[in-house]
Amino acid sequence: MRWKSGTGKKHNHTWEITCELHVFEGMVSFFDIEKSLHRAIDALSGKFLNDLPEFKVVNPTVENVTEYLFNEIDAILRANGAMLMRIEVSDSPTRAYCIDITERTLPTEAEVEAETKSEQKQQEKPDA
């Protein structure tokens, strides 16, 4: 953590992450999904979070880590025909943060594909 007076002492956490997902059609191999999710998790695993670009400005609180993981994992799932509905992240037995979108209206697979294509086109545009 960073405060006005400096940075806190380096320390470890054992994170627990629980995800619920929605699959658009049919079934998706859990092994394939789990393998894909490790890309997001491995980016943080065993690292001092304050040193990572994602947390240079934003403190790596359990809330901010959850927001980061939600965005990363949801993007991975959407590329694999699913979407993240709920994530709960805890850094201790008494402290957890949850993002739950299960009450929202689900997009169709076609809407997700259109959004993904639009985002890809935006990324392909050269900077003006």
From TrEMBL:
One of its GO terms (molecular function) is 6-carboxytetrahydropterin synthase activity. It comes from the Bacteria. Residues 114-128 have a biased composition (Basic and acidic residues). Pathway: Purine metabolism; 7-cyano-7-deazaguanine biosynthesis. It is an enzyme of class 4 (lyase). InterPro entries: 6-PTP_synth-rel_bac (IPR017543), 6-PTP_synth/QueD (IPR007115), 6-PTP_synth/QueD_sf (IPR038418). It catalyses: 7,8-dihydroneopterin 3'-triphosphate + H2O = 6-carboxy-5,6,7,8-tetrahydropterin + triphosphate + acetaldehyde + 2 H(+). Belongs to the PTPS family. QueD subfamily. This is 6-carboxy-5,6,7,8-tetrahydropterin synthase.
